């Protein structure tokens, strides 16, 4: 649309410039004619020649006057003039003069008072071409500019569409690949649990240890797969939320339970202080559990030494607040907004000891937004981080 508007404005300006040029030309042509008529009227000798029918003398005089004033007013174009008194009396080009229509826009006329009110006409047969040529450079540059803009816009739209298609293909590929990981993950999880069952096989300390590692890693990988799948499904709008009145405390407890293996293996300290007297919110249980899970996962991942985490809830102004506090690596203030962006990870130089896709907090933010909840981060480098989410109570 913007391009079309630019296009029409440009065309309008070209026509406007042409009409200004024409007006200017008309003014100059009228002045040249007026000056010639004035000089002719005051020249008794020339008037006498015309009246006596001495055509050659008359045309020479008129010719020289026109030539002179054309030069003065800088009109460099062929012209035809006619001196008329009912019939054509004199002209510098009889053939052209008779074939031209006097009513045309390129004709200027004035009566010569000293010549018994004869009419002197000045005609420019190539006026239109002259005006177009005069505005040649600006006309050509305008047209060129229009074509450049059209070409560049076409290129931009084309590469945008190409990029969009590529991005869609990449997302499709990642989604399919991650989806394929789900079945083996479930099977590994089941096998790990079987190994841990006391009555299935003879339990040694080693078997128990390795089974715990398998289950722990399986749980971690499962969460990451869910993260990628959940994010792309949310973006495509394929995952509508199912809102129901639900107890936030139950959700938190479930999330904590699913982390029991991870906390056990890292001897993490995970405390909860669920002090809110009204824990009821309207929300989607599965997604809310994932939100709490993501925050807990980060608190463990970005710990310094043994993780030390506190989950609290409290009521304030018809709202329930959930806070997840850790004493880990912390986040510099300049990254506080960016951590919620898709794929963003706080730069750590060459060290990449903590793995992740940079999707977790983006997902958390999206889900909190869909619940009309607020999310805040309070963090200081090397001191720790607290995420606070505020839901409306029901
Ligand atoms: P991921 O953990 O997969 O990298 P997230 O979206 O969950 O992605 O987090 C984005 C970034 O925010 C992380 O890379 C990390 O640098 C920082 N971050 C998130 N939570 C914490 C936390 N509790 N402590 C310190 N840094 C954190």
Description:
The protein is an alpha+beta fold and 394 residues long. The chain folds into three domains: 2-125, no CATH class; 132-236, Helix Hairpins (Orthogonal Bundle), CATH 1.10.287.130; 244-392, Histidine kinase-like ATPase, C-terminal domain (Heat Shock Protein 90), CATH 3.30.565. The chain is built from eleven helices and eleven strands. It has a five-stranded mixed sheet with strand order 6-8-9-11-10, covered by helices on one side. Strands 2-1-4-3 form a four-stranded antiparallel sheet. The protein has a two-stranded antiparallel ribbon with strand order 5-7. The longest helix has 61 residues, at 136-196. It starts with a helix and ends with a strand. The model has no long low-confidence stretch (mean pLDDT 85). Bound molecules: adenosine-5'-diphosphate. Adenosine-5'-diphosphate is lined by residues 298-299, 302, 326, 328-331, 339, 344-346, 356-362, 385.
Any chance you could write out the topology, listing elements then pairs?
Layout: H1 2-41, H2 44-51, H3 55-72, E1 80-85, E2 87-91, H4 94-99, E3 107-112, E4 118-123, H5 127-134, H6 136-196, H7 205-236, E5 244-247, H8 248-258, H9 260-265, E6 269-274, E7 280-283, H10 285-301, E8 308-316, E9 319-326, H11 360-370, E10 374-380, E11 384-392
Parallel strand pairs: 6-8
Antiparallel strand pairs: 1-2, 1-4, 3-4, 5-7, 8-9, 9-11, 10-11
The protein binds adenosine-5'-diphosphate (ADP).
Adenosine-5'-diphosphate (ADP) binds at residues 298-299, 302, 326, 328-331, 339, 344-346, 356-362, 385.
């Amino acid at each position: 649309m913007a391009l079309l508007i630019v296009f029409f404005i440009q065309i309008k300006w070209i026509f406007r410039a042409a009409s200004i040029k024409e007006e200017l030309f008309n003014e100059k042509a009228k002045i040249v004619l007026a000056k010639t008529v004035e000089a002719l009227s005051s020249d008794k000798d020339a008037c006498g020649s015309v009246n006596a029918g001495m055509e050659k003398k008359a045309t020479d005089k008129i010719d020289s006057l026109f030539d002179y004033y054309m030069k003065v007013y800088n009109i460099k174009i062929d012209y035809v003039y006619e001196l008329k008194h009912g019939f054509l009396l004199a002209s510098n080009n009889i053939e052209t003069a008779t074939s031209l229509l006097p009513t045309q826009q390129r004709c200027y006329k004035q009566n010569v008072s000293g010549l018994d009110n004869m009419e002197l006409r000045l005609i420019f047969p190539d006026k239109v071409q002259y005006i177009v040529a005069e505005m040649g450079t600006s006309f050509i540059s305008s047209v060129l500019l229009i074509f450049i803009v059209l070409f560049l816009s076409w290129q931009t739209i084309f590469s945008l569409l190409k990029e969009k298609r590529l991005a869609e293909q990449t997302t499709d590929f990642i989604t399919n690949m991650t989806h394929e990981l789900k079945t083996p993950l479930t099977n590994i999880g089941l096998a790990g649990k079987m190994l841990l069952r006391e009555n299935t096989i003879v339990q040694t300390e080693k078997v128990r240890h390795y089974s715990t590692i398998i289950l722990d890693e399986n749980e971690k990988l499962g969460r990451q797969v869910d993260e990628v799948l959940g994010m792309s499904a949310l973006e495509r709008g394929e995952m509508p939320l199912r809102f129901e009145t639900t107890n936030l405390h139950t959700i938190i407890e479930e999330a904590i339970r699913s982390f029991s293996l991870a906390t056990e293996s890292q001897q993490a300290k995970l405390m909860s202080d669920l002090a809110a007297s009204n824990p009821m919110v309207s929300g989607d249980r599965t997604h809310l559990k994932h939100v709490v899970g993501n925050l807990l996962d980060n608190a463990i991942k970005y710990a310094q030494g043994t993780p030390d985490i506190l989950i609290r809830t409290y009521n304030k102004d018809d709202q329930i607040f959930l806070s997840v506090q850790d004493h880990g690596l912390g986040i510099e203030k300049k990254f506080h907004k960016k951590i919620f962006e898709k794929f963003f990870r706080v730069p750590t130089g060459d060290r990449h000891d903590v793995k992740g896709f940079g999707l977790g907090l983006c997902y958390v933010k999206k889900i909190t937004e869909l619940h009309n909840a607020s999310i805040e981060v309070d963090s200081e480098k090397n001191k720790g981080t607290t995420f606070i989410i505020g839901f409306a109570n029901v």
